[in-house]
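User: Can you recover a sequence for this backbone? Please restate the input before giving your answer.

Assistant: Of course. Working from this structure:
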């Protein structure tokens, strides 16, 4: 079986820059194990699998080299780009995903995407989260990901997380984002 595969570097106009993603165009989703093996062999942070629907929209799933992901912005934009170079004429493009419908609009040679809104709520974080991030205190909220808010931008820049310890923290499907208010004309630092 032949599967059209594309390597796309999102967020750049330069070769060998940006955020790489693999994109596979399918007529139907392969078994999960096969898509997982393709993603592992491609070794990108994400490989997107796109399947056209009868209604003109597309189904979309993302796999890292190790697991299926529930949302990936750069691989979604890469998928829209691949559809454009393959002759997609109807815009915006709607991708049906496990995170809901994601819409990508084409504006000349650029692409814009609306992300789902997951408002964070205050929470009690796992006991080992802040130490793994190298923090003693922070305001922690959770939606899909933990949102760790510190007081100053310098704290974000000085972070030295213990990646091994962080990998052992039970944070569910999401991740951890550390942020602080920005200074002058910058709203925030993450």
């Amino acid at each position: 079986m032949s599967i059209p595969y594309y390597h796309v570097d999102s967020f750049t106009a330069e070769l060998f820059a940006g955020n790489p993603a693999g994109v596979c165009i399918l007529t139907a989703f392969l078994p999960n194990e096969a898509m997982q093996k393709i993603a592992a062999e491609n070794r990108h942070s994400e490989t997107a699998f796109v399947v056209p629907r009868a209604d003109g929209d597309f189904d979309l799933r993302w796999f890292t080299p190790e697991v299926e992901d529930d949302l990936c912005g750069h691989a979604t934009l890469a998928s829209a780009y691949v559809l454009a170079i393959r002759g997609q004429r109807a815009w915006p493009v709607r991708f049906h995903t496990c995170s809901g419908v994601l819409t990508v609009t084409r504006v000349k040679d650029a692409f814009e995407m609306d992300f789902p809104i997951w408002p964070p709520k205050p929470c009690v974080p796992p006991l080992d989260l802040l130490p793994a991030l190298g923090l003693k205190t922070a305001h922690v909220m959770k939606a899909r990901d933990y949102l760790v808010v510190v007081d100053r931008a310098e704290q974000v820049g000085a972070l030295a997380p213990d990646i091994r310890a962080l990998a052992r923290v039970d944070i569910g499907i999401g991740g951890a984002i550390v942020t602080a208010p920005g200074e002058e004309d910058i709203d925030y630092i993450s």
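That completes the design. The first strand starts at residue 5 and ends at 10.
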